[in-house]
Specification:
Length: 598
Amino acid sequence: MAAVTNISCYRFAELKGLKELREGLVADCKSWGLKGTILLSTEGINLFVAGAAESIDLLINRLRSIPGLEGLVPKVSISEQQPFNRMLVRLKKEIISFGMESIRPADYTSPKIAATELKRWLDEGRPVTLLDTRNDYEVKLGTFKGALVPDIRTFREFPEAVRKLPPELKDQPVVMFCTGGIRCEKAGPFMEQEGFNNIYQLDGGILKYFEECGGEHYDGECFVFDQRVGVDPGLRESDFAVCFACQAPLDAVDQADPRHVEGVSCPHCYVSAPERMAQRIAKLHDGIHEAVNPLPGSVPCENRRPVNIPAALDRKTLLESLTELFPQVSREEWERRCDAGRFESYGGAVRGKDHVVRGGERVVQVFPPDVEPAVAVDIKVLYEDEALLLIHKPAPLPMHASGRFHRNTLQYILNQVYAPKYPRPVHRLDANTSGLVLFARTRHYCRLMQQQFLNGSVEKIYLVRVQGHPMEDVFFSDAPISAGPDIMGTRRIDEVAGLASRTDFKVLQRCEDGSTLLQAALGTGRTNQIRVHLWQLGLPVVGDAAYLPDQQLGDTQTLDLAAPPLQLHAWKLSIQHPVSGGRMDFEAAPPAWSGLDS
């Protein structure tokens, strides 16, 4: 195979007509069979290109014909194979990103020192500080002996690193260097602006030093930005590979490491699955904090809530349909809302109470702008992967829009964080119940997880404090619970038409104040099931404003934020993961009222 000629060079010059120049260079380089990258900017050119020697000569002549690039002198090396996959010509704001508009290398650069002169200084032992301006992953492959390495990840971090250098360096000779010299063209003038009085740039960088002086006073190899990864002082290709995730050079040991997955990770940047999840969760918590400050419902805003008309209500009036669909709201209230023009069709027409609906029709209830009640917002993400999202929900916080709540809900808040791919609730918790609630990341996973809840393979354990002491330490209730809501959205025991339900209870602690801490295991998942069963047993939940002692019903659904909490907590959850099939057990920290250790 014929040898491949590699050239690299840069030049700071005021260039114009960049779009046309780019189009011409793309066409020329492709016709000449060249591959690599050319960066064009109004401040100059930076390039790494490889191909046949005669094609390289054509490119050099073409570039030297451009005003400002007449004196272009590339560095040349030879490789056995083409180090680039394709030919790119890109337009950039800067040919080397630095972020300091006051630095203009086309107008001024710091004094340069030739490679041979630097070697002579080092041979003589002259007092000089060598400053490596390259990124940390480049330095791993090699640097000058005794060089000062600022440990930066990108060149944009260099200014801050310079400001941390010892003040005594400002009056001492400092020779800065990089791969080919381009970074020093900006780094030098910046250091002079910062008060360094004796700055030199290594002319041509490390590669020029290798070419003219070999490897004396240098440890290792030089990182290059192509598939060769590194070259030794003889400018020969090394055996290093590069991690395309973090750009770190990889020796034979690194490449054999099981953490090295080509194109994904290496021993230097590998992050374990738990660590990756912790990073994701930290970002989610940041997003939640932003979404709830201020609370979404603290700003008055018109809200619109759809009402879907089932086939069974076909040809009923709108008022009749609303009363039957939502019996927890009085007929008089629905009539008032209809008369106030609160309902519209999706076509925009206002629908009065006597409007005859059709099965499948969707109308919209319009809520005038209003401030929603405050809610608890200490939402914690406990687990997240491609399929599932497990939340520790505080209380009071409604799961979804209902009653006075439209945007101060868990679903709305999570939608802001995850938009546009909204998580889907697999099951629900009452607004006043705290603890574990499971979401699915897609509709497909939601169906799979809901099936587990339906077939009873999910284990759900709650903590609950009740008023009174049960007679037995272990007991249960299998009283059937009404399928639909009653007054204020409550459920009740319905021995005739109720849904089969079962909750198993176990006493954890009998308290001197007359209350009892229980563990409740759900055998079914009916609305308000634990609260209704305990209410029926004469053991109402402490803090429950709906299911009161002596079989009384209250008039409060969602508690105020300042009210004593409902002492019911979704404590443990055990599921089968929809992807891996493995069993997963989760536990939420017990609330303070339980008296249990976290």
